[in-house]
Design goal:
This protein has about 160 residues and is an alpha+beta fold. It has helices spanning about 70, 80-90, 110-125, 130-135, 145-160; strands spanning about 1-10, 15-20, 25-30, 35-40, 45-50, 55-65, 110, 160-164. The chain has two domains: about 1-65, no CATH class; about 70-164, no CATH class. The chain contains five helices and eight strands. It is elongated and about 60 Å long. About 15% of the residues are buried. The structure holds zinc ion.
Length: about 160
Amino acid sequence: MSHKIITWQCKKCNEIIQSDSREHHKMDFCKCGNIGVDLEEDYCRWSTNNQDDIIIIKESEVENMVEERYYKELPEALQPIVKEMCKRVKVPVTKINFTKPQWFMDYTWTAVQQEKFVNWLADWFYNLPVSKKRELNKNTNKTKKNAFKFAWAVVLNYGWKTKE
Ligand SMILES: [Zn+2]
């Protein structure tokens, strides 16, 4: 399964838009309304009075094993954590099916990598505004101890497998 992504620009309003064929039955318009496009996997329909106003910046066909939407469907508060976790093992977030139970068992990191991540996460959580903290943890106290408690809980529940 593959999908198409076209990055295009309107010559009139200069707006740059990225259209994605996975967004079905949706027309993308530039802000001045001069150009619209309906991009699907098997066809692409432009709607404009002047074809010359369309600038195609980049066109690509992407083979994707796992849909990006799995990442986007994660609770927003969790996304930065998962993103960083993936970065640490050099796996794009789009490769992971987060709906699969135990998705975190598919990759490994060393105890040292794990500890570094805990430090990062504790720091990140420590500096988070209370409203954001509340979405992740009942205890919103701004103490280093609480931040580390949170970070370890996340890693022990959802961290990558550790290897020796
Ligand atoms: Zn326009």
